[in-house]
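Same chain as my last thread, 79 residues:
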Amino acid sequence: MRSFALGLILSAVSMPCLAQTILKSEPLALAPYEVVFVQDASCSAGKVLKVTGAIRGLHRRKICVSLAAEQASLATAMP
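reply #2:
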């Protein structure tokens, strides 16, 4: 019974994480190791910029990755 309940809780938590939001601009503040996807001109067609936050004193990690259209939704960045 406990494992069934645990499975339900984990599936409820993990399902919203499957869809990623794509921002139109890179946020100014980003927590360490937080990942955001940005649609800008720095990547080729069909790819988005994956930005990973870093701890103080280090640079953010930026990589162009491809995302399936059904995994992402377009949103605006909040300043």
